[in-house]
Amino acid sequence: MNFKTFLAMLARDAQVARRNLVALLLQTFLQPLMFVFIFGRVMVGSGFMPGAYKSLLLPGIMALSMVGTGIWAVAMPLISEFQFTREIEDRLLAPMEIGWLAVEKVVFGTIQALAAGLMVIPCAWLLLRPGVELNVHAPLQFAAVAVLVALFSAVGGLALGCSIEQTHIGLMFSLVVAPMIFFGCTYYPWSALQNFPLMQKLVLVNPLVYASEGLRGTLVPQFPHLPMLAAIGGLVFFDLLLFTFGLRQFHKKAVS
Amino acid sequence: MLASIRTQELRKVYSSAPPLAAGAGGFVHSSPRGKGKVPKPQVVALDGISLNVTPGEIFCLLGPNGAGKSTTAGILTTRVRPTSGQAWIGELDVWKNQVAVKRLIGVVAQRPNLDFSLTAREILLFHGAYFGIDSHQRAKRAATLLDRFKLTDRADQMVRGFSGGMMQRLSIARAMMHDPRVLFLDEPSSGLDPQTRLLLWEIVREYNRGGKTILLTTHNMEEADALCHRLAIIDHGRVIALGTPRELKASVPGGYLLRLRFGHSSENVLARLKALSGVTEVRATDGNGADVYADRGGSLVPEVANVALAASVELCDVHISEPSLENLFLHHTGRSLRE
Fold first, then answer.
1. B7 vs B221: CA distance, rounded Å
2. ipTM of the complex
3. CB proximity B80 to A under 8 Å
4. What is the CATH number of the domain that holds B109?
5. Closest approach of chain B CAs to the CA of A181, in angstroms?
6. Beta bridge partners of B150
């Protein structure tokens, strides 16, 4: 691997992100913060939701924000650069094995997703206070889960970005991203599905379940959540699976 | 150091439509239908291309769209995997030493593929950074190239608003940024105005004088004739003629081509035309026409008219071509490069 080339590509992505910072921030935070405001502030404040819902909601919103950011940051450029603008060709011709370009995309997407996730906490806390009770007893475990969630979003973006045709971007959101979010235990804990046993089992194929439940287990462990071993194991499994698949798709796109 | 380009029996068969990077082309072999299952169409883009481009040469692949030029360039630049055969840049096997090969080559793609998220200068600077050039050196080199390609006044603007010609100039500047030993230019002058085309030719010649090998694909005969030391004419994935422009033009029987069209077809006319002095070959063409290869052009017309008159056939149209690569292509394929 050519480290200088790898770093130069990271620098290129950073430059592009810097240039689009305002749009990037709006895209990352507007939706989660509106959600936090309506569900955490309006619904709780008007008495339709119990006060504890604020704390339960925050990890889900964090997972949502991370996954949205990572998928968007990796998938969208890949879709347009491979199929429309062909901007990626210059980097494919750089003196580095092309697989490392996919890794670079994943690294950059992971950093962006981590930044998005970590910035949601203070923003949401400000919007929701008082009443949010975060109990981070195991900071290392929290860090590990956050990195695994960010990585999942970036490798998910790689897999989608190299598999979806440009004309199917709308379908990607309505058939993949939207169901993943609604059945991803972001707005409710997995245990809340106990009255729907079949659905409770089926949603386990959704990697976002492990992301939401993992963050819930490390940020607000006072609420019911999946065992941490299961959450971390699920995240590691999906990270590896999506990375392997994404890398294969990337090679298929890069070399005809 | 100088580097050669070699290919041996390159074959590329696409099982789906060739991607744009390979210059969507080739021709379809319809294989027999299996029971109830429709087989995927096989598109043969290259059918055994062997080339040997000597170091320091400007070599041209000339052929119509879909002939296999871009696929050949794609294989040599690590972007298209050959179905069989081998390719080398210098002593390096392209598919076994991809990273080392990428250090030796600069590529200008057929379609603009500039980084739209960056300014013109940033495009050159980041390209230099990918190749490990230190920051001082790459800033200097970028400034020199921007000046050479007359882009200095737009250097710090995003390239999205650039004209086609400016984008093409910047693409070439980018390909030269890491000073590659071998430069690939895929249809570099398509869509350029005549002035920019001349600037491009001048820059290519100048780069070549520095000892660089250049492989250029084009369907423009004038470009091949003016710029290349040697060229290969490609059609349907095969090399149909190879040599210097002068050698190739001299190889057309007679050199001149008279394309004739008559009121109706007549074997008698064809036989009489063959008998005229200076005529080397006569071929009947579609409709009521004939292609006459001869060692003279205009002076033959009165005799052709007499032949038609004697056979009571109306001579409707005469077109005279001087010795050219177009005539050579026509002679080998029966089709015009412009078709």
1. 23
2. 0.88
3. yes
4. 3.40.50.300
5. 30
6. none
d(CA B177, CA B185): 14
Task: Please give the tally of structural domains in chain B.
Answer: 2
Note the pLDDT of residue B41. 75
Residue B76 touches chain A, beta carbons under 8 Å: no
Give the pLDDT score at B264: 80
Same domain for B166 and B313? Answer: no
Contact B131 A5 (CB under 8 A): yes
What is the nearest CA distance from A256 to chain B, expressed in angstroms? 5
Domain presence at residue B239: yes
Is the separation of the CB atoms in A199 and A171 below 8 Å? no
Could you state, in chain order, the average pLDDT of each consecutive group of 10 residues for chain B (339 residues)? 85 72 47 56 88 93 87 93 93 92 93 90 96 94 93 92 88 94 90 84 91 90 87 90 85 79 82 84 82 83 86 86 77 68
Q: What is the tens place of the pLDDT at every residue in A39-80?
A: 888 888 888 888 888 888 888 888 888 988 888 889 989 998
Measured between CA atoms, the residue of chain B closest to residue A4 is B132
Chain A positions in Cβ-Cβ contact with residue B117 (cut-off 8 Å):
15-16, 19-20, 87
> Nearest CB to A256: which of B80, B98, B130?
B80
Instruction: Give A19's contacts in chain B (Cβ within 8 Å).
Output: 117
Structure tokens at A148: 């695994």
Range of the domain at B296: 253-322
State the burial class of residue B310 (Cβ atoms within 10 Å of its Cβ: 0-12, 13-18, 19+).
exposed
List chain A residues with CB under 8 Å of B18. 256
pLDDT tens figures, A183-230 = 988 888 898 888 898 988 999 999 999 999 999 999 888 888 888 899
- Chain A: give the shortest CA distance to residue B150, in Å: 22
| Cβ–Cβ under 8 Å, residues A117 and A186 | no
Tell me how far CA of residue B309 lies from CA of B71, B176, B263, B279, in angstroms. 50, 60, 11, 18
Q: What is the pLDDT of residues B202-225, one digit of tens each?
A: 999 999 999 899 999 988 888 888
